[in-house]
Amino acid sequence: MNTPSTPNTMTIDNFPLPIHTGAIKPDWIRAAQDKGFNIVARVVDRLHLALQCHQCGHMNKTRLFTLMSAQPLCANCVESVWRADAQTAGLELLHRDPTHRHYGIYQLPCGHVARRQFALIKRVARGATGLRCETCHVAVEAAEARARGWDLIRPDSEGKPNYRMYRHPACGHTQRIARPNMQTGRVSCGGCGKDWPAAASFIYAMAFTLENGRDLVKAGFSRDPASRLHHQLKRDPRMPCELLHAVAVPTGQEAIRLEKRLHKELKQAHPEHVVAPAVYRNQIRVVSEIYDAALTQTVLTRLGEIEAEIERSAA
């Protein structure tokens, strides 16, 4: 908005700016005319101009460098486009986000207020994508959980987009569950359920020696590590192998959480020791999470630390 100014100032967008007395060069005037503006004055210092938009009459403070090297933008025309995009998308632009120039604050059709990128709203206006209200979506997810006998607590504790944290009111147990599983009812409580999430389990370390003599170490979880080693993993019963250590975990749900955390740590800290599946595919029935034997002591040390954590929490 432009308001009346004092003789020595010019107000642009409600800010009084001092008028600079330097001359305005003819090539500046021609550049401004070619780009849709009139130069009204020099403002602030020798590096800034007051440009009036030919299309809407709005006054803009613009750097001289911008005028001479690029296409200046009229703030009022740009905002008009944003508002038109919002209207086409079925929204109302309330105001720009003061913390980020690429975002605006919008009122959604449901009445909630949301922060969105201007570029996203333009895509919505073109029909290239949809727009979701997080507040309404959380309510939908909470209703899905209630229909299955659970309470939605918050987003996933590990930040994965397909998971949420839920509480089972029947026993108070909290659990990470994939939203598709909650929607389809493929859920068992790790606190009071009778399936594997509630059953006692183990995190283990196993050693293998391949036909070519290479030694490997595997970390994983199972309700019966010895049975998994000898009846599930080995393709050749004569393969040299050994269960190195197994840590008892109260529930399968907790075991898989701890196992995933362990593998994430190992892969981030020791990517060079991750063994490609092609190396062992024909000898071990597993497709990932096997490491070079050089990592054996590291795996055993972490299992010892996990074991200590479990003992402390149970004390």
Walk me through the structure.
This protein has 315 residues and is an alpha+beta fold. Helix content is 34%, strand content 28%. It is built from 10 helices and 15 strands. The strands form 4 sheets. It has a 5-stranded antiparallel sheet. A 4-stranded antiparallel sheet has the order 14-12-13-15. β9 and β10 form a beta hairpin. α3 crosses α4. The protein is elongated. The N and C termini lie far apart (67 Å). The mean pLDDT is 91.
Kindly state the number of beta strands: 15
The helix content is 25-40%
Based on helices, strands and strand pairing, what is the structural class? alpha+beta
The main sheet orders its strands as 1-2-3-4-5
Radius of gyration: 32 Å
What's the average pLDDT? Answer: 91
User: What low-confidence regions span 5 or more consecutive residues with pLDDT below 50?
Assistant: none
Write the layout of secondary structure elements.
Layout: E1 9-12, E2 15-20, H1 26-34, E3 37-43, E4 48-53, E5 59-63, H2 64-69, H3 75-88, E6 92-96, E7 103-107, E8 113-117, H4 118-126, H5 134-147, E9 151-155, E10 163-168, E11 173-178, H6 179-184, E12 201-209, E13 215-222, H7 225-233, E14 241-249, H8 252-269, H9 277-280, E15 290-292, H10 296-314
